[in-house]
Give the backbone structure.
Amino acid sequence: MPQKKSIDPAALRMLDLAQGQNILTAFTRADSTKPCPIGADGNCCRNCWMGPCRFVGKTNNGICGATRETIQARNLARAIAAGSASHSDHGRDLAHLMAAIGKGEAPDYKIKDEGKLRIVAGYFDIKTEGRTNEEIAKDLGEAALRDFGRQDGEITYIKRATPKRQEMWRKLGLTPKGADREVVEVFHRTHMGNDQDPEDILDAALRASLTDGWCGSMISTDFSDIIFGTPTPVSASANLGVLKEDEVNIIVHGHEPQGAAMVLEAASDPEMIKYAQSKGAKGINLSGICCTANEVLMRQGIPLAGNFLHQELAILTGAVEAFIVDVQCIMEALVPLAGKFHTKIITTSPKGRIPGATHIPFSEHDAMTVARLIVKTAIDNYPNRPKQVNIPDTSNTLIAGFSHEYLNYMQGGMFRQSFRPLNDNVANGRIRGVAGVVGCNNATMTQDDSHINIIRELIKNDVLVLTTGCGGHACGKFGMLSPEMMENAGHGLKEVCQAIGIPPVLHMGSCVDNSRILTAATQMATEGGLGEDINDLPAVGIAPEWMTEKALAIGAYFVASGAYVIFGGPNPVAGSEAIQKLISAGWEKKVDGKLEFVEGWENIVAKTLAHIDAKRKALKLVEWDPNRFAPSASYVPGEMYPAEAYAAGKRSAKA
Ligand code: SF4
Ligand code: MSK
């Protein structure tokens, strides 16, 4: 167990408070829950009831004869399939909503990004000319729904990968059919007495993961943008200090945007605000946890109350009237904890019921009526708030909203938008490389420690960082998403950030929005100058504090798309050297991407930089030099920077 539970002062304060009141949280339960060492290393098979078979000591076969490698591959494949299923089902609900909007069955929703509707319809070969948004939306929603259940052929978005990658997948038999088909097949293959070839099992897992990245998640992102707006930079703040002492605090938590966007609209209604005032509050304050938060942050600038491990801590403040949850990453501990305070836990999804919570089912057919009921429930709970609340005075400002579309726009405006400047700056060494640092918190690790240390080191080394999910929250809490953070970047990266006016860490959204990173990486690869596929880029994907099956699915689809992916923390295949080799060297040989589980953030940084430099060398780019751009990155009005200053290693003529 980590010595320190968190590096976040707000978390530490709330944990002290919990200890003083004898209240357990995930942080303390992680201390007292000893993980089974056999299961932790992936050495347990529970796929039939002759077992479970535990592969300990010299035991290398289960009762059925299954080898350690087979069961390790099966366990990993099932986790990847479960993660893929979660993102795909999230995407499916957005496809239903899109079709419902088209059919006039979701009257409270509108198409916000008409341009993107038409672009995305084009991918699905849907006619757009002379047609209304509603007609297109109906066809688009229905086409996407068919894509999830596709029995033959290829998922639609495969065509968005680089031509080289598409060809590779076809040749290797990795091109996926629909998500439903591939996920079911993983569960069939891994049933007792079926596929007994670890490589074959893991190929099926890669196929399932591709339905996540290039279908479920990508559809989630695209359809959310079309319905709720494609993100552009917004400013907001992050950490528990965003809760307000004198307002009705509503927190949205989970992953889906459709309910939260409506709750926001209802909470902004002057009539509702007046109602809150009638109960003694000054107003209504909405904030978020996990990825529902990222969805409403990216589009509406709603503040982040915190990441995964903050969900219990927010309730501990005693200042939360309603905690609205949809799906995924919602702790079962919330209801008993809320019982000690006045907080109401409100479940909204039929797929995320919690005994003891108030269930107010969300439906697209009468979304605003439901949202108003939820907000009213929160307001009615305000008078029950205890006199003493404990909101830590800790928060930081941030800029988020970096959609792939905005990345294009910021590099040339409406008429010259492209990834050319980014590619050029990678080529000339101002930017050494790019890293996606994303993913969860894990209660068995020091909260945020790896995220923040890795990112701090990377930007210092001129690596541009893209973030999503709970990693985005961590960055927001520690000020890493503010433009001032460019002062902590290397000279070259700082100069690029100054020129474009961006922070060195770009928040790209929720977990499903890792698909934005896929799209951006594909564009970098096809823009020219940096090879022709994702595996050529000086880029790495990192999940430093991962814990969900979804994280494994994301890692797998990035590997299958050609990326080097590093996971910190637990290693689910630690029990088999052979499987670790298969998913690193083996996958590298097969798909030019690899997955490694690496202990210690320092080692992750070292491996990331080594990989970036090796890719730069393979592309024959100039060797990265930390001082090369020192003079031009240190502009002070009135000073001149003669070329000799650089040669002399000085920052300016006056220095
Ligand atoms: Fe044991 Fe084989 Fe059954 Fe797994 S499938 S529990 S290894 S007998
Ligand atoms: S919420 S999947 S803890 S990133 Fe997307 Fe955070 Fe991980 Fe859940």
